[in-house]
Design brief:
32% of the residues lie in helices and 20% in strands. The chain is α/β, with parallel strands linked by helices and 285 residues long.
């Protein structure tokens, strides 16, 4: 077997996901625009705000966010930066928020976005590795960072330190969108045919503060409606990648077993395969 690469559902090599913070009133306009264009987003909510139903009501979150295929994730109970908290405070900040979200909406909340500050700003004695340890113990599967955009389209090596591609206010935004849309795995060197992801983040209130809601429309019009793109939430992408990493191989690599509940897609030497849940296939190379 030569190189094997993950492909998204349908054999697609590109995915788009959004992540917006704080659960602000302007999320109502944001989600209406995203729904119109068929783009999915993860909304990172503050636990105490959800309990107070300020500024978004539980009914709105339930019907217009969750009910339209978006996702909610943890943004801390009181929106406090993990790098400024003792471990017991950091743990409680995450756990209390998760409990509040799960009580309000059911389901299992495993995703998160760091509030206030990034892991690259951590100061001793608080370190990222220390925080990462209790994130894992709290069953957090991914955490989005902020203000350390990658300007690339690769899946993260560390899902608990997932840096987005770009903020919506970045002057390079549309150049990056054009580069992403132009990517064709069949036209690049065979060792570089990894699947790509365009990951946009921000706060909906920024569009209102800057009076540039037309920017959101322009972003959606560029990104939406492409048949070669999977539009997914952060959690959907994380779960799919985790399932892909669970594939089981024979010693020579030619027999592949899918023990997961997902139908998984991958490409080998330019040929795309779909391995159904519970199936085994033999790849002739």
């Amino acid at each position: 077997m030569n190189y094997m690469f993950l492909r998204y559902p349908g054999g697609k090599a590109k995915a788009v996901t959004l992540s917006y913070d704080d659960g602000c009133r302007d999320d109502m306009r944001l989600v209406e625009t995203l729904n119109r264009h068929g783009i999915k987003c993860t909304f990172n909510l503050v636990g105490s705000s959800v309990e107070r139903e300020e500024p978004l009501t539980k009914e709105f979150i339930r019907s217009e966010i969750l009910g339209k295929g978006h996702e909610i994730a943890n943004h801390g109970y009181a929106h406090r930066g993990q790098d400024l908290l003792r471990p017991i405070e950091g743990i409680r900040e995450i756990l209390d928020s998760r409990l509040a979200l799960e009580r309000a909406f059911g389901g299992i909340i495993r995703g998160m976005a760091f509030p206030d500050r990034n892991v690259d700003r951590f100061q001793l004695p608080v370190t990222y590795e220390r925080v990462r340890t209790y994130l894992k113990e709290l069953d957090v599967t991914y955490v989005r960072t902020a203000e350390n955009e990658t300007h690339d389209f690769e899946l993260p090596e560390d899902w608990l330190n997932w840096a987005p591609t770009v903020h919506h206010g970045d002057p390079k935004l549309f150049d990056l969108i054009d580069r992403f849309l132009a990517f064709d795995p069949d036209q690049v060197y065979r060792a570089r045919r990894t699947s790509k992801i365009f990951y946009l983040w921000g706060h909906a209130f920024e569009f209102d503060h800057n009076k540039n809601w037309d920017l959101l429309d322009a972003i959606c019009e560029k990104l939406a409606g492409h048949e070669d793109i999977w539009y997914a939430t952060n959690g959907e992408i994380c779960d799919y990648a985790a399932a892909y990493r669970s594939l089981v191989f024979s010693a020579d690599g030619n027999t592949i077993y899918n023990p997961t509940l997902f139908d998984l897609w991958f490409a080998i030497d330019g040929t795309t395969y779909c391995l159904r849940s519970g199936e085994t296939c033999v790849v002739e190379v």
